[in-house]
Every structure is written in structure tokens, then in C-alpha cells.
């Protein structure tokens, strides 16, 4: 049985002038995920891409998984979903990227999203 995130956790990462702003949050359903993602996009209006992933209970004892890459290279939504799977968590992770003018490449983008998301998840789990 997956463990639900109990609280939110935020993280910031700068990689070659691009800023990655991450939030891990509890989410009992997809509607809460959509609300959190929309609020994060509003808060970080300058971001070029806001990628997210979630695992939420489906009501019959299973888990619904969703992710979005928002046009970013390297499948960062999948990378964020893997973070939740790795820790067997339910909840959501959203990362906004504010482009700094330097292309990171597929591997660099995936790595930066993973690092920012992982730090936010660790903080949400109380392991700073």
C-alpha cells in the first residue's frame, strides 16, 4: 500500500542559469493535483515549462498515475513519476523551469528535473 505524502516540500535548483522550482504535495485526488499545478504555474508565470507527475488513490484500492512533460525534452514527467514510484508514495510533484538561455540537452534537463523533484520529495517526507 503506497504511503501518502503528509505535507508539502519545496526545492530550488539552478543549472547553467536555468532555475528549477519544485513542489511535492499531498493529493487525495486528480482534482487536487490540477489545482496545485495551476497554482504553481500562476506563482511561476515566467516558467517556460511546468512538468508534473502524480499518483493518487482510485477509490478501489488501486493507484492512478499521470504525468505531463509540457513540451519539455527528456520526458521529465516520467522522471518525476519514477520518484514517486521509487518511494511508493501517493501525491504529486510539479517542477517549473525558468529558462536561463543555455540549452541543457536531454540528459541535463532530465537530471535537473530529477534533482529538483527529489529534493522536494525528501523535504515533504521530512528528510531535509
Structural class: alpha+beta
Strand content: 25-35%
Mean pLDDT: 90
Q: What's the gyration radius in Å? A: 14 Å
CATH architecture grouping? 2-Layer Sandwich
> What is the CATH class?
Alpha Beta
Report the oligomer: single chain
Annotated CATH homologous superfamily: Impact, N-terminal domain
Report the count of strand segments.
6
Helix content: 25-40%
Please summarize what this structure is.
This protein has 128 residues and is an alpha+beta fold. Helix content is 35%, strand content 33%.
Structural overview:
This protein has helices at 30-43, 76-86, 105-124; strands at 3-4, 9-15, 18-25, 49-57, 63-68, 89-98. With 128 residues, the chain is an alpha+beta fold. The chain has one domain (3-124): Ribosomal Protein S5, domain 2 (2-Layer Sandwich). Strands 1, 2, 3, 4, 5 and 6 form a six-stranded mixed beta sheet that branches. Strand 4 (49-57) and strand 5 (63-68) form a beta hairpin. Helix 2 (76-86) runs parallel beside helix 3. The chain is globular. The two termini are 24 Å apart.
SSE map:
Layout: E1 3-4, E2 9-15, E3 18-25, H1 30-43, E4 49-57, E5 63-68, H2 76-86, E6 89-98, H3 105-124
Parallel strand pairs: 1-6
Antiparallel strand pairs: 2-3, 3-6, 4-5, 4-6
Helix pairs in contact: 2-3
Key words describing this protein structure:
single chain; 128 residues; alpha+beta; Ribosomal Protein S5, domain 2; six-stranded mixed sheet; 35% helix; globular
